[in-house]
């Protein structure tokens, strides 16, 4: 998937979206027009992002980004898209931490104007490590950077997580608590089980994903876990950088109250996912970048909290990603882009590394 043609993500017509966006914009800023509407091609497989400029004598900002709930007709990646929750999360992070996030401008909860709820925010200037082709491949700006430049980016990025986890106040973030019984970790994992059940409803089950859930139960942390506000989709592909300094943290749809290690495991594993793809294609990748031991040590120095049970949390990240990958593969089958094989586990792009994690051999490689 990293190098293949981009899977279909929407059935919406860009021209019609532009017309409807301009009509809506006029209700918020009389006389304004949306111009230069584009869809970024390198990142994002869930909610849709539109980039546009505001043509108006006195716009609140000139360059904007719009996050639109996924097209219900496009076999969505997640069962629901709570744009109000994302909007409130951005407001909370901006108000209570020094983690840089885009300034939010407007929230539209009525699905009428564009066919689904959305919000508009200021567009941050800079560059994002791409998913397609992955930033670990030869030719990406991050791959071409010096070791010192990547070191700076890594240090600054782990600093984002440290400051978010330490600064965000739990009382104000209570709306991000997941429903259910038990502590924050049990609720988080229960939500993933429910998501997996939704993905396979009426379709083939994944023995590998179910084995991963069983292995999680064996590795379950013994010490109580304290929740913090977690970003959720904590990876460098969701950060805008000015040079090698982060200037905007994007994509908060997976934010939740959860243990710190949920974000750390996701950050570590998602880089390894792209690195493994690159090595599998015959390239060197970025083996010294965002290494698990370095991330853990750097986070501990910044926060005083030594990450615990990281075998559990990196497996949990790979498991969560596997469920998303399975859903995306089933969506490709829905649109006739791929055929469903006899073994559904092969639809999971990283099935080999996930299996190695379940067997306890991955981090020994």
UniProtKB/TrEMBL annotation:
InterPro entries found in the cross-reference section: ACAD10_11_N, AGP_Transferase, Aminoglycoside_PTrfase, Kinase-like_dom_sf
What CDD domains is this protein classified in? ACAD10_11_N-like
**Transmembrane region(s):** none
Gene3D superfamilies registered for this protein in UniProt: 3.90.1200.10, Phosphorylase Kinase, domain 1 (3.30.200.20)
Q: Which domain of life is it from?
A: Bacteria
Task: Identify the residues that the record assigns to the Aminoglycoside phosphotransferase domain, covering every copy.
Answer: 82-271
| Protein's name in the database | Phosphotransferase family protein
């Amino acid at each position: 998937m990293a190098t293949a043609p981009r899977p279909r993500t929407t059935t919406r017509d860009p021209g019609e979206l532009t017309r409807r966006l301009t009509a809506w914009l006029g209700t918020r800023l009389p006389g304004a027009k949306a111009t230069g509407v584009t869809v970024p091609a390198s990142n994002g497989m869930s909610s849709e992002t539109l980039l546009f400029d505001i043509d108006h004598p006195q716009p609140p900002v000139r360059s904007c980004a719009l996050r639109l709930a996924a097209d219900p007709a496009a076999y969505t990646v997640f069962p629901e898209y709570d744009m109000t929750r994302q909007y409130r999360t951005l407001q909370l992070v901006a108000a209570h931490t020094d983690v840089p996030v885009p300034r939010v401008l407007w929230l539209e909860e009525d699905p009428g104007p564009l066919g689904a709820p959305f919000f508009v925010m200021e567009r941050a200037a800079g560059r994002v490590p791409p998913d397609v082709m992955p930033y670990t491949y030869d030719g990406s700006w991050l791959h071409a950077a010096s070791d010192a430049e990547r070191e700076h980016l890594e240090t600054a990025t782990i600093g984002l997580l440290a400051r978010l986890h330490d600064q965000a106040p739990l009382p104000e973030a209570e709306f991000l608590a997941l429903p259910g019984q038990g502590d924050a970790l049990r609720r988080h994992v229960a939500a993933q089980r429910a998501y997996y059940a939704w993905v396979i409803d009426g379709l083939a089950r994944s023995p590998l994903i179910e084995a991963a859930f069983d292995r999680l139960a064996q590795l379950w942390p013994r010490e109580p876990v304290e929740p913090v506000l977690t970003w959720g989709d904590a990876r460098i592909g969701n950060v805008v950088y000015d040079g090698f300094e982060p200037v905007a943290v994007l994509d908060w749809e997976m934010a939740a109250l959860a243990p710190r290690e949920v974000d750390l495991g996701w950050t570590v594993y998602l880089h390894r996912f792209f690195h493994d793809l690159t090595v599998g294609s015959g390239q060197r990748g970025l083996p010294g970048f965002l290494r698990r031991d370095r991330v853990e040590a750097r986070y501990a120095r910044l926060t005083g909290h030594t990450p615990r049970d990281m075998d559990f949390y990196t497996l949990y990240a790979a498991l969560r990603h596997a469920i998303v990958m399975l859903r995306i593969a089933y969506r490709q089958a829905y649109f006739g882009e791929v055929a469903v094989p006899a073994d559904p586990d092969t639809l999971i792009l990283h099935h080999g590394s996930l299996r190695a994690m379940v067997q306890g051999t991955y981090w020994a490689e």
